[in-house]
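Reviewer 2 asked us to include a model.

Predict the structure of this chain.
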Amino acid sequence: MESAENIRESRLGKWCLICTLGLVVVCLAVVSTRVYLKPFSHSVFPIYSFAASNWQDGKSCYFTKNAEREMDVYRYSPAVTPLFLPFHFLGEKWGGILWRFVNFGLYLHALSLVYQIFLSKQPGWVGLSAFILLSLPLGLTNLNNGQVNLLMAALIMHGVSLAALGRISLSGFVFALATCLKIYPLAIALMIGMAFPLRFFASFIGSVVLIFLTPFLFQTPDYVASQYSEWFSSLAKDDRSQRPLADSFRDFWLLIRLTGAPIFFESYRWIQLAAAGFVGMASLFALWKRGFSQTWITRTTALGCSWVLLFGPSSESSTFVLIAPWLAMSLIQVFRGEIGKEKTLLLAGTGLLVLTVLAGILPATRRIHSFGFHPVAAVCLFFFYFLTITWCNLPAKNSLGEIAPGVRTGA
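Predicted model (structure tokens):
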């Protein structure tokens, strides 16, 4: 029979989960109501829907102007555009609502999967509720404006989880899906693939090729080829390095501009590449020294996400959702007493991100973001995860769980 203490813990866990799900429902209801009433306000979904409309009509997705309202340019590849067609058919209101539900649902499922694999010493609803609540704030911006970052974060979490379970080929396929959405996940894919170079990269490369060929099933070959050409052309022209600080990316380049350091943007590209090499070598060193483990794969992913945020090609406020689950995981480890003095960097970065979330509700939010809170937080997290993967303990049997049965590196 269950003890009284276990029964109390079970009841507490159920109530925590009910409250967490209630909060999720409230967030979805508030955002859905706003989208229904004002579908074109604070939303990027109309851009996706307009691109899908142009795709359906055989028009340019990248250079066709909307005659009715001003919109930002469409930046996703032709491999992604057919994804928006089902939502476009539902219209700006219901399509926008369903798009957010699908993205947020996949995000929550991925959080549950990550918790079960990497954090659940003793499965319980209290821990899962805490993990979801800690991962939620950085995702609310994407839920509100409909950006694809929730979907991308979910795919990364699924890919990492599958790799930890030893399903390497399927992990490569999922990372290929994420990379075709945006280029960011390529950094994490390259790092995870170091442990399984043959199986992972064979699946990853093959899947990328197939995904980029898929649009030819939905339109004529000439039209699809022209869209790929226009996409590459639009990317080459997309230089946002000298935008006003309030509209610029939240990355290391923003810090350079704020400090007035005598560094040209062309030189900054070399800094990005050097940082990428630095991260790759750190991850490879930890893999060589201690072998593959669930701790290695989570900290490698977190370090890769930190690089994306600090040195990636286009880090926005909404991009910081990529670090949310791994940041939440680290905070839970701090609570459990599993992280040492290096937690100071983690807590500093977390505190700065809390400020950015709170600033999002203020009228002058864009001006506040131009002060560089995001990249400074990313600096703290970048060095925290670098320390945890190189100088701190990575035991073969670690607090995050055992290596999945049958997993072997190098194949």
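Confidence is low (pLDDT under 50) at residues 395-411. The chain has two domains: 1-228, 242-402. We have added this to the supplementary material.
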